[in-house]
């Protein structure tokens, strides 16, 4: 993906749950809220990858904006 997030790995440790399951729950919640969000055209896909990462694929316009953003 264009962006990887390890939040599910951190939460899984605290919750004492499987990181892939936690990532799946985060994905479900994110996708349901994305449809009514102002960034819905910026996120092309979101996938869960073992051991519990969330990989975001961004649209080309979002990728360009991220690359050109000042530090």
List the helices and strands and how they pair.
Elements: E1 3-5, H1 7-15, H2 19-34, E2 43-49, E3 53-58, H3 60-68
Antiparallel strand pairs: 1-3, 2-3
Architecture overview:
8% of the residues are buried. The chain has three helices and three strands. It is an alpha+beta fold and 71 residues long. The chain starts with a strand and ends with a helix. The protein has a three-stranded antiparallel sheet.
Distance separating the two termini: 21 Å
Q: Tell me the β content.
A: 15-25%
Helix and strand composition category: alpha+beta
The H/E string reads EHHEEH
What are the segments in which pLDDT stays under 50 over at least 5 consecutive residues? Answer: none
**Helical content, roughly?**
40-55%
Total helical segments: 3
Shape: globular
Our Rg estimate from Cα atoms comes to 13 Å
Total strands: 3
Q: pLDDT average, as an integer?
A: 88
Q: Order of strands across the biggest sheet?
A: 1-3-2
Q: The biggest beta sheet, please?
A: 3 strands, antiparallel
Characteristic terms for this protein:
alpha+beta, 3 strands, 3 helices, globular, three-stranded antiparallel beta sheet, 71 residues
Quick summary:
The protein has 71 residues and is of the alpha+beta class. The chain is built from three helices and three strands, in the order βααββα.
């Amino acid at each position: 993906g264009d962006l990887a997030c390890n939040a599910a790995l951190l939460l899984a440790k605290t919750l004492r749950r499987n990181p892939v399951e936690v990532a799946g729950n985060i994905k479900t919640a994110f996708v349901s809220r994305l449809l009514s969000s102002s960034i819905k055209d910026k996120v092309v896909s979101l996938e869960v990858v073992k051991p519990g990462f969330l990989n975001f694929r961004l649209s080309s316009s979002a990728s360009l904006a991220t690359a050109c953003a000042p530090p």
